[in-house]
Amino acid sequence: VLGREAVAWYETALQALREPTRPAIVCRLELDCSYDELAQTLNKPNAPAARQTVSRALRRLAEEMGRARRA
């Protein structure tokens, strides 16, 4: 049950995110893209910039999952 609930929270939170947050999450977590691939996909200048985008996106995702959990 917890697994299904966590997936539901993730999906709800993901839908609440905006660009480029959502694609950063999907590419990194679901598609296992490298940071170099992410940089190209997200039009970032390099892999460290893509890594920073993913880091911020994960923080936002965690915040949104907390909201989804409380809803």
How would you describe this structure in keywords?
4 helices, 71 residues, elongated, 0% strand, mainly alpha, 79% helix
Note the main sheet: none
Radius of gyration: 13 Å
Please count the helical segments: 4
Helix content: over 70%
Q: What class, by secondary structure content?
A: mainly alpha
How many DSSP E strands?
A: 0
Strand content: under 5%
The residue ranges in which pLDDT falls below 50 over 5 or more consecutive positions are: none
Q: Assembly type of the shown chains?
A: single chain
Our measurement of the CA-to-CA distance between the termini, rounded to an integer number of angstroms, reads: 17 Å
Q: Average pLDDT across residues?
A: 93
Describe this structure in words.
The protein is mostly helical and 71 residues long. Helices cover 79% and strands 0% of the residues. Helix 2 packs across helix 4 and helix 3 crosses helix 4. The two termini are 17 Å apart. The mean pLDDT is 93.
Q: What's this, in brief?
A:
This protein is 79% helix and 0% strand.
List the helices and strands and how they pair.
Elements: H1 2-16, H2 21-30, H3 35-41, H4 47-70
Helix pairs in contact: 1-4, 2-4, 3-4
